[in-house]
Each structure stands twice: as C-alpha cells, then as structure tokens.
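Replying to the earlier thread about multi-chain prediction with a worked example.

Input:
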Amino acid sequence: MLTYPQFRPKTLDDLHYHQGLSIRLKSLAASADFPHMLFYGPSGAGKKTRISCTLRELFGSGVEKLKIDQRVFISPSKRKLEINIVQSNFHIEITPSEAGNYDRVVIQDLLKEIAQTQQVDLNAKHRFKVVVINEADSLSRDAQAALRRTMEKYTSNMRIILCANSTSRLIAPIKSRCLLMRVAAPNLEEMQIVLEHVAKKLKFDLPEEASQQIAEDSGGNMRKALLVFETLKMQSPDLSGPLTIAKPDWEMYCHKVADLIVQEQSPARVMEVRAKFYELISHCIPATIILKVKLSIWVPNKLTDNSQTVAERVVERVDEALKADVMHWATIYEGRMRLGSKKVFHLEAWTVKVMSLYKNFMYNFDMADFE
Amino acid sequence: MSFFQAKSTTTNVKHSVDPAHQPWVEKYRPKTMDDISAQEHTIAVLQKTLVSTNLPHMLFYGPPGTGKTSTILALARQLFGPDNFRNRVLELNASDERGIAIVKEKIKSFARQTPRAQAVASDGNVYPCPPYKIIILDEADSMTQDAQGALRRIMETYARITRFCLVCNYVTRIIEPLASRCSKFRFTPLDSTSTSSRLSHIAREENIDVSPEVISTLIETSGGDLRRSITYLQSASRLSSSTNPPVPITPQDIQEIAGVVPTAVVNDFARTLGVSVDEDMDMDDLPANGKLKGFHSVQKKVKEIMRQGYSASQILSQLHDTIVLHPTLPARQKALSALAFAEADKALCDGADEELWVLDVGLRIHKAITAP
Ligand SMILES: Nc1ncnc2c1ncn2[C@@H]1O[C@H](COP(=O)(O)OP(=O)(O)O)[C@@H](O)[C@H]1O
Ligand SMILES: [Mg+2]
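Result:
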C-alpha cells in the first residue's frame, strides 16, 4: 500500500483509536493462553494493522522479517493451484479465496503442515505459530468445515487469526471457537487525529478544515482518508484555501451515468447507459460498487429540503417512496448479480426498472395535478 | 483425507495440553452420565442399559451443545472402564470427502477383533464390559444418502459384535431404513436452570466471580447451547483476568464476545424506523410518533450501525425479535416486516451486500409502519 507505510503503526501502543481494544490485545498477548481470534469490521477500519501489531506484541520484531513464497497445491481433480504465502518465522498469512473453489485444499494442507511442525526458534516467546487468514468471510462452507476440526485438534502449536468484514457468512462453530474482536470504523475526530499525526511526521501543517473534510469524505475508511490526503498534498503542497477532494475518474463517470438515467428514460438511453457500464466493468470496477456509488449520488440528490408550498410537499412525500423503491431494486439486483454470471445484465435491468419507476411517478404526479 | 477421521481429542489425547490452557468445554465435559445436565428422560433410559448391558443401536439427535457426544462417551466409559475404552469404542467424525470405503475399512478392522471380557479394571472398579464394541458416528447427518445406505449393510453384517450410535443435529437427514434400526433419543436445548447451575459450577471450580446478570446474559446469548455459553465464559474470564488489575466480567463483555449488538443500538434503530420501543412508554411525554422520519434518517442510521462493524445477520435477527415480539404492533405490520426479514436472510446467505440489505429491510419496515 502506498499510503505512508513508514507511518503505519507497528506496536499496539502506536495505535491511535480504540484504545480499549489495544489494551485487551496487549494483555491477551502477554498471557500464556492466547485464543483463536476473529477480527471483524468494515474495510479500512484498521483490522490488518491491529493484527500485525498483535503479532509483534506476541513475538517481537522478528515477525516483521517477511518472505513471500509461492506454494503449489493440488486439487482433488489434480489441478495445480498457485498461492502466495507471506510468512515469518512465527506466523504465516494466507488469502485462501485466491484458490477459489479449492480453498478447502489449501486450508487443510497448509494448516495440517503447520500444526504438525514445532516452532524451530527456541527463543520464541510462544510455542505456537499463528496463521492469519484474510478475507475469511469468503471461505467456502467446505473450507470452514475443515477449519472447524483443525481449530480444536491442534491448539498446542497453532493459533488462528481470522480477518473478515462481517461475521454473517461464517458458520457458527467457527465463531464460537474464536474470541471475537469487533473493529469499528474510526469516527471523525479519531480520523482527524491520525491524519494530523501523519502530517506532523511529514513536518506539514494540515489545516483543521482540511483534515475535517478529508475525514468526512472517507466514510470511516482510514485507508481511503490517508490516500486522499496523500493525493491532495501532491496537488497543492500547503492545502490551504478551499479544498476540493477530487473523486476518482470512475466515480465521476458513475455520476454521469446516473445523470443520464434521470434526464431521460428511453430505449435509446438504456443503450447509451449500457455502453457506459461495459466501459466501467472493463476497467475492473466491481459492479456492486458501481451500483452503490450511483445510488449514493442520485438518491440523495432528489432531496428538497425547504418545502414551502403544498405541491412541493407532495413531491417530497412521493419522492420519498421513490427513493425507497430505487434502493429496493438496487438491493435486489445486486444480490442477483452475485449469483448470476453476467453482471452487466443486472445493472441494465436495474436501469430499466428505475427508468420505469421514475416515469411512472412523473406521470402519476402530472395526473394528480389535473384532479 | 478420509471421510471419517478418528477423533484424537477425546479418544486419545495425543497433544498433551496443559490443563490450565485446556478449553473448558473439554475440561468440563461430563465424565459420567450423572454429570449430564437436563436430558433427564434420555439419561434415565440409558442408565438402565448399564444394568441390563443390553444396548440397542442408537440415534442421538438435537441441536449442538446439548450433550449428545458427551452422553455417548460417558455411557461407553461407564460400560467399559478406562482400560478397555480404547479398544472397545471407535469414534468417527464426518469429514469432507464423502466416501464410505474408508469408513467401511475402519469399521471392518475394528469390529474384527473379538472383544475380550475383563471385568475388573486397573482403577479397582468393576465394569459391565458387555461383549460388543461401540461405534460412534458423530455428525452422521453430513453423510451422503449412499454412504448411509452402505452403512445399513455394515450394521447388519457386524450386528452381533457391534452397537452403533449415530449422532446428528437433524434426524430428518438420516435415511429411514437406518433410523428405523435405532432407538431414538432426542436432546433438547438446555433450560436456563440447568445452564445456570452448570456455569456456576464451572465458575466455582475456576475461582472466578460471576454475577447473576452475567449468567443470565450467557443464557440469553447461547440459546440452550452449553458449549457456546461455556466458551463465552472462558473468553470473558481470559479478558478480565488478563487486565491489570483484573476486572469483574460484565454482561456487556459477554455480549461483545458473542457478537451481540447492544440492545440500545437495536432499539435506537427500531425507533428510527417508527417502532416505539418499551422504554419509550415510561417516558413522560410520549415520543412524537406523528413526526416520522424519512428515507434519509433511515439511511444515516444504517450507515452509522454498519460503521460500528456489527454483522448484518446479527442486527437483523435482533431487530426481528424486537418487531415480531412487539407488544402493540399490528399483525399486518409484523407480517410485512417478517417478509422483509426472510428475504434478507436468504440474500445474506448468498453473499449479497450487507449494508444494502439492512437498509432495504429498514425501509420496508419503515414503510409498513408509516403507511396510512
Ligand atoms: N447436558 C449437558 N450436561 C453437561 N454438560 C454439557 C451438556 N451438554 C453440553 N455440555 C457441555 O458442552 C460441551 C459440548 O457438549 P457435546 O456433548 O459435545 O455436545 P453435542 O450435543 O454438540 O455433541 C461438553 O464438553 C460439555 O462441557
Ligand atoms: Mg457432538
């Protein structure tokens, strides 16, 4: 990650927010009785940072000497899977979702291997090795089932740390074998403190308004906030004066597509919008993000705050209903998109649905005017 | 990788674990049937088999953490004693490869050796030691139909010298010909009195202070699954004893460990959706229910909750209870909400976006409640 790796906190004491969590982690790392753990929370909240600080607390700076290996696993159907593995003498880090449907093989083989080897470093503070599993919520059910037994059997030389955005997709037996650590997104003040801290290290005077605006704009995602800060600083070296946080190109592009939908509802427009979807998807922008960003732009845009006349009030009331409907269909199509194979179909279907809702609403409204 | 794997944790403790660091669920696994809490009926029937030593094939079913595995292990231990346990009891766990061949092989070689009778054990006690072996098939409901079919024949072939005990969560997933050969024993979620006394017992043994509030939070969050409540208790005690100086365990600790969303957060969400929650009733001036909040306040609240990192399925399940068990909400509104919850649950299992679904459910409930 290019966002100031040199300022990434290394120890639990360096961490700025969620002090309570850090204290707990510190004392757990000190006790002989370190449990399996599950860190969960929104992305950019600092789960990974917290995990690496915990590892450092457990084993000292040796965990920072990392090497990256490529390992080959053989699936039951004899397919070769190549997986990247980051490891130190004390821990190993994997992202099994890289193995797709064969994640169970990776989990079983790797964990068994680790569980059966003893810690070689006699000076190690703990007998066990830690296995960090990233994106644990995308593990298949089979892989989770395989994990379940391993977690019980090999507690003497292995501990597992799972990292996930949510616990919803983890099976209950796994959750009940872990100590759950919820890492909430930092709030505005907490983000500002981190930004100001980094600024200070850079010997840079970050105006209060700037840090506030960056924090507000990043929706609780610390990684994003730091990225924005870095970009802004490159653009205008002193960050004074009015600040415009440039949205990424693709986000601007999403805005345009949203506008297209609101401006005109016609088959020709659908074709136009579809071409733009293709463009976005071909640039590897995930379809869920496209949908969500578009929503966040144009659903709120419809808000008219100071309604004075009766007519305006009516609009606002009906408008409300429309907003909920637009959201509802976005939710439905997002779900279908995940199960289906052609993302663009569902984006398109949503577009048509929204156009039709919108047209209907305008039409009914016109009619009401006449009565 | 075999379909069944001999379970090493209970039958032979290879990895010598320091008892101080042993998971409490293992440390406090009942040793005899008398130690099993609740399940009185099942235990009463099984106690008789100790006297008659005439054991049928058995099928244990019921939700997790209710004592199924513990009961069969205790029964086997009481029948055979410590010396013979190893060569008389085979415990097999369902694994991922669904082949029956290996099971068959294992059972075959295990059942072949004829049991020796040896009544007085090294601990000086006399054990009934009946002339058969017990084969425990844990998690039997994850076996394929084919495997279960094959098992039926195996059961017949070795009927003279073996007794099978199938253990599962869902009895309906066991094929009829297999189920009908077994005496069925149902295990029910533990009632709060039994859970409470078991937890207090453990707390006493471990010398930890546990308040009645903590116990009742443990009961609430574990839904009759004793394994879960014991694990939660151990995690909480780890956390509280590792702080310096040690602090007492609070109900909030338990909720956090169990991943439960604090009641205040759920109530707050419900209120944003237009549902009046209990505490509102006590307030002097009733909440301005007429002043309902719109799309944006729902959206804002959802964002706020999601940023706290709570899991969508947990929020929805707690909100579900608040709404469905609500004392005054009209049935129609509850029904409309229930539809939304059901759809969301399915979608979340399919891996759909969590925030979108929580918002969608919120908006639908809001609509149901504010509809004229
Ligand atoms: N009825 C019970 N009485 C006493 N302890 C129980 C009971 N049920 C569960 N436990 C506790 O929970 C743990 C798991 O129980 P187990 O018998 O493995 O449950 P399952 O029904 O899932 O097989 C045991 O180690 C024990 O500590
Ligand atoms: Mg069991």
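Confidence is low (pLDDT under 50) at residues 1-16, 282-291 of chain B.

Feel free to reuse this layout for your own posts.
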